[in-house]
Design a protein that fits this description.
The chain is mostly helical. The protein has 22 helices and no strands. α13 runs antiparallel to α14 (197-220). The longest helix has 24 residues, at 197-220. The two termini are 27 Å apart.
């Protein structure tokens, strides 16, 4: 009964997730306009209308997708039971800090607000209006400093600022935000082990994905493990020691990911070695594993906090998948390759 109202609301939200049949139609769509027409019949109609409706320009589609994700994530805190609302707010921080990381990377590249706006989430304390303002800062230090003002994430951002001042590397600042966020989330994960084991496992899978992608990018850059060890996030299913062994015991990306038994990366590795030199392939495969776990939690009959958390990941993966399908030509993935990589929930 404790989760009765929350779960009922989440189940209603779940019913508006894209079905397997509709996702297949999107995969088979001939162009972006055809995908938009399909999404117009789904939960994205209002958001698409806000940015042009059926005549929406391709570069504006990401705005609509981000708006929909932000709107649904915000609902989860509101519908969580009072005693679990603090947990959901802590988890919600992942999306709060998302824009901050994009802004730091953009400033490092000298990119404008207009060039990154489509990838932002108009959500939380770091919404589009805040980002537009903070982008006027002259430096990364200025951006992080402004993001710290009256922020519940000031401690995390202070660590990121210190890290950047030491290395003058934006990558270190972003990695520090991730590491410190998940470190702060450690107490949440510990609490979830008691009340919702599967919820804790889901969060740990998210951590694994970030750590594995860090290793893959470092291996491509031919870096030593010592150069990245400080950016490994704790509390994952795969320990730092195990990650170090995997990294040092491999000569290239394919040989490294073949040692990671917790996730099925064979399909991605095969495509990677056959000329699709896209690191995105590995992220898609790991998100599929996260998808399966979230799907099982959503379909579980027992009402738990995991139902709420699972929806958050399902929605995020849905938007991630739609972006891949719409931008598949940019990623260089054919329809057949996308079909092999992307899975979706049963009817």
């Amino acid at each position: 009964m404790h989760f009765g109202y929350s779960s009922a609301r989440v189940k209603a939200m779940e019913s508006r997730l894209i079905s397997k049949k509709t996702m297949q139609e999107i995969i088979n769509a001939k162009d972006a306009s055809s995908i938009i027409a399909i999404l117009f019949k789904e939960d994205y109609k209002n958001d698409l209308e806000e940015f042009g409706g059926l005549e929406i320009k391709e570069e504006m589609i990401d705005f609509a997708l981000s708006k929909n994700l932000a709107k649904n994530v915000a609902k989860l805190v509101q519908i969580s039971p009072t005693t679990e609302r603090k947990l959901m707010r802590a988890i919600e921080g992942k999306w709060d800090l998302y824009n901050v990381k994009i802004v730091i990377e953009a400033k490092d590249r000298g990119a404008s607000y207009e060039s990154i706006a489509r990838y932002l989430m108009d959500y939380g304390i770091y919404n589009l209006a805040f980002v537009r303002e903070v982008m006027r800062e002259d430096s990364i230090e200025g951006i992080i400093g402004k993001c710290m003002i009256n922020s519940p994430y000031s401690g995390i951002l202070r660590e990121a600022l210190d890290s950047y001042k030491k290395s003058r590397n934006a990558i270190d600042a972003v990695a520090t935000i991730d590491r410190q966020y998940y470190k702060a989330l450690g107490s949440v994960i510990t609490g979830l082990r008691v009340m919702a084991m599967n919820s804790a496992r889901t969060l740990k899978m998210d951590i694994d994905m970030k750590n594995i992608m860090l290793l893959i990018k470092a291996k491509r850059a031919d870096m030593k493990f010592g150069d990245i060890s400080g950016n490994i996030i704790g509390n994952g299913n795969i320990s730092s020691h195990e990650l170090e062994q995997v990294y040092n015991g491999s000569k290239d990306i394919p040989s490294m990911v073949s040692q990671i038994k917790q996730y099925d990366l064979k399909e991605a590795t095969d495509m990677f070695t056959k000329g699709r030199n896209q690191l995105l392939l590995f992220e898609i495969s790991m998100r599929n594993a996260l998808f399966k776990m979230s799907s099982r939690l959503l379909n579980h009959r027992i009402l738990t906090f995991g139902t709420i958390l699972a929806y958050a990941y399902m929605k995020e993966i849905e938007v991630f998948t739609l972006r891949i399908l719409i931008n598949s030509k940019i990623y260089g993935l054919s329809r057949e390759e996308v079909q092999r990589l992307i899975i979706w929930k049963s009817e």
